[in-house]
Amino acid sequence: MIGLCFVGVLIMCSVSASGTALMFELPDRKRFCLSEEFEGPKDYVLEYRVMKGGKNDVDVSVRSPNGKIIHKKSQVKEGKFEFETSRGDYQFCFSNEFSSWVHKTVFFDLRPADINSLAGEAGNEVPFVRNSAENSCDEIHETMTSVMRYQRDFRIKESIGRHIAETVHSHVTWVSLLQTFAILLTGLGQSFLLKRFFTEKSSDSVISSIKAET
To answer: Strand pairing partners for 34?
Structure first.
C-alpha cells in the first residue's frame, strides 16, 4: 500500500493490484515524497510527467530500502525508470524547491513491468494448468490493460495540449487588448493634436484680420 510522506494538493489517486497512479499539485519550494513497500524481487516501471506549471520541470529521486539513491534527475519534464525491487520500503520524491513562485502538476505511475495474470492479481500463486478459457481470459486481460494504458497516455497528452491551448489563447487575448488600447490611445492623441493645430491656426487668422482692420 502506498504511503504519503508529504501531501501537497492531491487531485487524483488510484491504487490497484496492477500498480499505483496518481496526479498531484506540487507547490513552489515544496517537496512531495511517497513510499511503497515491496514484498520481494520483482521488476517495476516508474513513469512520471509534469503536465503543467512553469517550464514543466521537477527534480526526481528514488531511494531504496538501504538508503541508496538508485535514480535521480534534475529539472526534467518526464521520465521512465525500470528497476528490480527488493523487500522493504522504497521512497519516491518529487521536488519543486528550485521554483520560487510556480506550482507544478505532476503525473506519477508505478506498475509491474509485466502484466499479471488474473489468477496472480487475485492472489492465487499455486501453480496449476490453465485451460483454453482461462488462457483466453488472460489474453483479453492483457489486451485490455494495454488499451487502458494507451487511453491514459492519450488523456495526459490531451490535458497537456488543452493547457497549452488555453495558455496561448489567454496570451493572445491580452496582447490583442493591449494592441486595441494602444490603437485607441494613438487615434485619440492624433485627433487631439490635429484639433489643436487647426484651432491655433484659426486664432492666428482672427488676430491677423483684426490688425489689418486697424
So the answer is: 4, 92
Rounded Cα–Cα distance for residues 90 and 145 (Å): 25
Nearest alpha-carbon partner for 100 in 30, 156, 38: 30
Direct distance between the N- and C-terminal alpha carbons of the chain, in angstroms, rounded to an integer:
106
Looking only at the bridges linking them, the beta strands covering 42-52 and 104-112 are antiparallel
CA atoms of 97 and 5, how far apart (whole Å):
16
CATH 2.60.120.380 fits 2-114, yes or no: yes
Residue boundaries of the structural domains of the chain: 2-114
Give me Rg for the CA atoms of the chain: 32
Is the distance from CB of 83 to CB of 47 less than 8 angstroms? Answer: no
Q: What are the pLDDT tens digits along the chain (214 aa)?
A: 444 444 344 433 433 335 577 888 899 889 999 899 998 888 999 999 998 888 889 999 999 999 899 999 999 999 999 999 999 999 999 999 998 888 899 998 998 888 777 766 666 665 566 778 777 887 887 888 888 888 888 888 887 788 778 878 888 999 999 999 999 999 888 888 887 777 755 555 555 555 555 5
Residue type, position 189, single letter: G
Look up residue 164 and give its three cell numbers: 497549452
DSSP string for residues in 61-87: EEE-TTS-EEEEEEEESEEEEEEEE-S
Cell of 130: 490453465
